[in-house]
Amino acid sequence: MDVLTSLSSRSDYSKTQLEFILGGWVVTRLFEDKNKIQTTDGHVEEGDYDKASLYSLLYALYRAVGEMPVPGGEKFEMTFNTWGYAWPAAWGPCPISPSVRSASARTPTPASTRPRR
User: Fold this and answer.
1) CA 36 to CA 48: how far, in whole Å?
2) Measured torsion, CA atoms of residues 68, 1, 13, 78, in degrees rounded to the nearest 10
3) How many CB atoms lie within 10 A of CB 21?
4) For residues 56 and 8, is the Cβ–Cβ distance under 8 A?
5) What are 48-93's pLDDT values in tens digits?
6) What is the pLDDT of residues 11-22, one digit of tens each?
7) Which residues are within 8 A (CB) of 69 and not within 5 positions of it... i.e. 6 or more apart?
8) How distant, in Å, are the alpha carbons of 89, 90, 103 from that of 99?
9) DSSP 8-state symbol, 34
10) What are the residue boundaries of the structural domains of the chain, listed by start?
11) Which residues contact 5 (CB under 8 A, 6 or more apart)?
12) Cβ–Cβ < 8 Å for 56, 11
């Protein structure tokens, strides 16, 4: 299975399905003639992936992981967005520059600062 192009945004993948999807992807990569993901820098050509498939995988993984405890007793939930984020004032000064911060949306959001659904 090619997770770069085959996943549907209309599907809600379970943890077991995600394990099979990722495991199958790893195994099938051994038999590919062309490596779609460059091992030197992670580059993927525009035509070798479908954004909807990648978003579907990322959203499913974040839903499957859910909230997780971290040292100090606080619970965190990984978030994913394509718009960037604002550094929460309650966390103090941001340790990275705004240009790096706006290019990255991989910082976990404390459960206590997330809006409830």
Assistant:
1) 6
2) 30
3) 19
4) yes
5) 888 888 888 888 888 888 888 888 888 888 776 666 667 778 888 8
6) 888 899 999 988
7) 75, 76
8) 18, 20, 6
9) S
10) 1-65, 67-117
11) 48, 49, 50, 53
12) yes
